[in-house]
Amino acid sequence: MRQCLFCDNRANSKEDIWPKWLIALLKPQTPIVGYIGQDELSHNSPRVVSRCACKTCNNGWMSKLETANIPLVGCLAQDISTPLDMLQQFTIAQWAMKTTMAFASINLTTHGGWFTLEERHGLRALSRLPVRSSVWLGRYSGSGRIGSESHTIQYAIPGDGIADGYACTLLVGHLMLQVFALHVPVEKEDHRTPFGVPWNVGDWERLLVQIFPSRIPLARWPPPDSISNFNVLAGRFSLSRAVRAASRRRPK
Question: Within a domain: residue 4?
């Protein structure tokens, strides 16, 4: 019996990974394309459905989260300049994390995907994002596209040990969202000693707005500079300290 990603109920409801309201808003003309490592997930229809949730979750907190994000994600996807207070930043970050967890569940071999049961249940029950996670927003200079890319990567922890990372990049119209989360061994889980994840050199302060953890009370979107190539953001995380990584082929 397949279990709901976010609770202990049976997964008896089909979740639209890309919500219907977003598809109706953007009317993408090209096939929906997603990548996990070397595996391409291409859909001629913009609708991507997964039986990953129960009816209680799908019609309850997940529906409320979608409703709350329609005016937020909807404006950004249409390239409307929008200031975001801390609550709005967190609301978008929750949506990005929920979407990322849903993609992880269909892209990876295990049903729960990369995220732990505690992390997935915590998003539902406590509106809590994973401890070592971050969410950024960028502006895509093209338009009319919906797509995703995700990959896992392992980093060597200074001293001894391995940290597992998961990066997911989402593209909806003019809005790019990037989620990164990190799992470290229990014996290394000392929040007083943060582990800095390397990424490729780039003017990220001008290209991205970090919305989780929030840095400023009022974030302004779009950021000063835009991204014209999806690969630029999807390939941001560096392999310089990686001990093993998935191949990173992405849509051009």
Answer: no
> 232 Cβ partners below 8 Å, 6+ apart?
202
Tell the residue number behind the tokens 């001894």, with chain if given: 160
pTM: 0.86
Tell me what the mean pLDDT of segment 77-91 comes to: 97
Contacts of 221 (CB under 8 A, 6+ apart): 76, 81, 82, 83, 84, 137, 139, 209
Q: How far is 169 from 230, CA to CA, in rounded Å?
A: 9
Annotate 53-77 with b (16+ C-beta within 10 A) or e (fewer). bbebbbeebbeebbebbeebbbbbb
DSSP three-state, residue 234: helix
Number of domains within the chain: 1
State how far the Cα of 59 lies from the Cα of 65, in Å rounded to an integer. 10
Q: Tell me, yes or no, whether 3 lies in a domain.
A: no
pLDDT at 237: 78
Distances in Å between the Cα of 108 and the Cα atoms of 19, 57, 150, 211 are: 21, 22, 10, 26
Phi, psi (5° rounding) for residue 203?
Answer: -85, 60
Would 250 be classed as within a structural domain? no
Residue numbers of the domain that contains 70: 13-245
